[in-house]
Amino acid sequence: MNLSLLEAIRETNPVVFTVANSVTIAEVANAVNAIGASPIMSKAKEEAANLVGIAGAIALNLGTWTPDQIDQMMTVGSLANQHQRPVVIDPVAVGLPSRRQQFDRLIATTQPTVIRANAGEMAALSGDLSNGKGIDATGAVADPKRIVQAVALHYHCVAVMTGAIDWISDGQQTVSLHVGTPLFATHVGSGDMLSSIVAAYLAVEPNAMTAAVTGTAIFGATGQWAVNQSKLTLKQPGSFGIALMDSFSQVTVETLSSYLKDKVVDE
Q1: Spacing of C-alpha 157 from chain mean position
Q2: Separation between Cα atoms, residue 230 and residue 257, nearest integer Å
Q3: What are the chain's domains?
Q4: pLDDT tier at 61, thresholds 50, 70, 90
Q5: What's the pTM?
Q6: How many CA atoms are closer than 13 Å to the CA of 27, on its beta-carbon side?
Q7: Which residues sit in the known binding site for substrate?
Q8: Pairing mode, if any, of strands 158-162 and 166-169?
Q9: Is the distance from CB of 123 to CB of 90 less than 8 angstroms?
Q10: What is the pLDDT of residue 142?
Q11: 3-class secondary structure for the chain?
Q12: Which of 95, 179, 184, 239 has the fewest other C-beta atoms within 10 Å?
């Protein structure tokens, strides 16, 4: 983990190109902007070459896919690989056969740098379909370390599995993060925000494992700090969204260091 990347993003303002979930597109753009990066969203395949060319990293979200959007993602992903731009794929509800089919089409043309998913989605990708519950997957999977390692090894990428405890693996090294807030689960778009935020960290850090661990840890700690600063309860998801966005731009390395002490565990 490298907390100095927080300031690296604020200083360099990397462009993050997201092919977005239409439900959360504004939330994601605002979050990327709040951390100090520069968001670009587009639905036009015709812009792919230009936008990949200026992007520091790309995030592809399958949350509200259409045939045209999958075609766009395949073009964007292929170009990103050609131009050596890091790619984050967010395979929303990939446990559903229709969604898995589209994910498989995308993965055939695009080598992801990171796959970011919840426990149910990651279990589905690992072949453990018993835990697949789509975007609202809750509860712990039986063996999270095995699942996240399996996905990382199979897809040759870093796998980020988010939940009450976050698990991150490149297939060799595996880390668990014990930080965050239950309010993330009440706020639609938290995972989508994280996927594009991890892309921002990939834009300033060539080591994908370091970028993924750092971005995910900072995201969780910032959420926890936002709750504490605003004295929020679990019945305030709307207030949490506002506090979280403010906290993205206000949080400091010193604050993060205190929240993350002993919370990042090598497994």
Answers
A1: 13
A2: 20
A3: 5-266 (3.40.1190.20)
A4: very high
A5: 0.94
A6: 19
A7: 41, 189
A8: antiparallel
A9: no
A10: 81
A11: CCCCHHHHHHHHCCEEEEECCCCCHHHHHHHHHHCCCEEEECCCHHHHHHHHHHCCEEEEECCCCCHHHHHHHHHHHHHHHHCCCCEEEECCCCCCHHHHHHHHHHHHHCCCCEEEEEHHHHHHHHCCHHHCCHHHCCCCCCCHHHHHHHHHHHHCCEEEEECCCEEEECCCCEEEECCCCHHHHHCCCHHHHHHHHHHHHHHHCCCHHHHHHHHHHHHHHHHHHHHHHHCCCCCCHHHHHHHHHHHHHHCCHHHHHHHHCCCEEEC
A12: 239
Binding residues: 41, 116, 162, 189
Residue ranges for the binding site for ATP?
116, 162
Instruction: Determine the residue type at 17.
Output: F
Both tokens of 192, joined, read 């989508």
Q: Could you tell me the two tokens for 210?
A: 């370091």
